[in-house]
């Protein structure tokens, strides 16, 4: 193992749950405003997950006041406090960009069940 891979392994986070595109997650983000720090919650559907060691990121989409909002979070960032898995979705793709064009009930994702 070279030096870069060794440093990536040391700085890697191990508290990230196993999730994939289509799952609903809650991302707790630490936000600093002036000299105060608070945690903000961003809950939405994972439309993209980029794999990697230190370059891993996840794009989460939610609807806020009728407007679609997407945020991309680096998974190994110290700003990301924690990620909680809310529900698992049943999708057949790894990139759910088609959700950008859907509205209302058409944008629903089936929940992963027994059958």
UniProtKB/TrEMBL annotation:
SUPFAM superfamilies: Translation proteins SH3-like domain
GO terms for cellular component: cytosolic large ribosomal subunit
Keyword line: Ribonucleoprotein, Ribosomal protein
Keyword Ribosomal protein attached: yes
GO terms, molecular function: structural constituent of ribosome
One of the protein's GO biological processes: translation
Alphabetized InterPro entries for the sequence: Ribosomal_bL19, Ribosomal_bL19_CS, Ribosomal_bL19_sf, Translation_prot_SH3-like_sf
Biological role: This protein is located at the 30S-50S ribosomal subunit interface and may play a role in the structure and function of the aminoacyl-tRNA binding site.
UniProt cross-references to PANTHER family, sorted A to Z: LARGE RIBOSOMAL SUBUNIT PROTEIN BL19M (PTHR15680:SF9), RIBOSOMAL PROTEIN L19 (PTHR15680)
NCBIfam families per the UniProt record, alphabetical: rplS_bact (TIGR01024)
Family: Belongs to the bacterial ribosomal protein bL19 family.
Protein name: Large ribosomal subunit protein bL19
């Amino acid at each position: 193992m070279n030096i870069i891979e060794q440093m990536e392994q040391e700085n890697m986070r191990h508290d990230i749950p196993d999730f994939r595109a289509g799952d609903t997650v809650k991302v707790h983000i630490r936000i600093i405003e002036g000299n105060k720090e608070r945690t903000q919650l961003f809950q939405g559907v994972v439309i993209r997950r980029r794999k990697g060691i230190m370059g891993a990121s996840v794009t989460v989409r939610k609807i806020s006041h009728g407007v679609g909002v997407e945020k991309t979070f680096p998974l190994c960032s110290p700003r990301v406090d924690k990620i909680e898995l809310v529900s698992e979705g049943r999708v057949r793709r790894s990139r759910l960009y088609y959700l950008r064009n859907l509205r209302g009930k058409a944008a629903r994702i089936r929940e992963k069940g027994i059958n």
